[in-house]
Amino acid sequence: MQNSIYIINKGINKSIEFRGLCGQYIWYFGGLVIGLMILFAALYIAGAGTILCLGLTGALGAFSGIKIFALSRRYGEHGLMKTMAKRQVPKVLKSYSRKFFQNLEKEDTHEQA
Fold first, then answer.
1. Are 53 and 78 in contact (CB under 8 A)?
2. pTM listed for this prediction
C-alpha cells in the first residue's frame, strides 16, 4: 500500500527523483517555494493588494519553476555542477619564469635516486 499520492523513486545507489526533478534541482525548487512564500508575506505586510501579491508570486514561481525543470532536463543529475566547475578552470596558464619547472625537474631526480 502506498501512503502518498506522490511517487518517489529511490533505488539502491540512485539519486532521488521527484516528478522529473533529480538530485540538486529538488533543493533548488524547495528554495524557490520558500523564497516565494517569504516574498508573498513581505509584500502582503508592506500593504500590497492580495491580487498583486498572488499575481507577482504566481508569475515569478511559474517562470522560475519552468527554468528549474529545463535545467534538470538539459544538464541532468550532475551536469550543472560539472558545467560550473568547467567555467572556473582557466583556459591558459601563464608563466613568466622557468624557475618553477626547473625546480620540478630537480625534485624528480632526487626521488628516483
1. no
2. 0.59
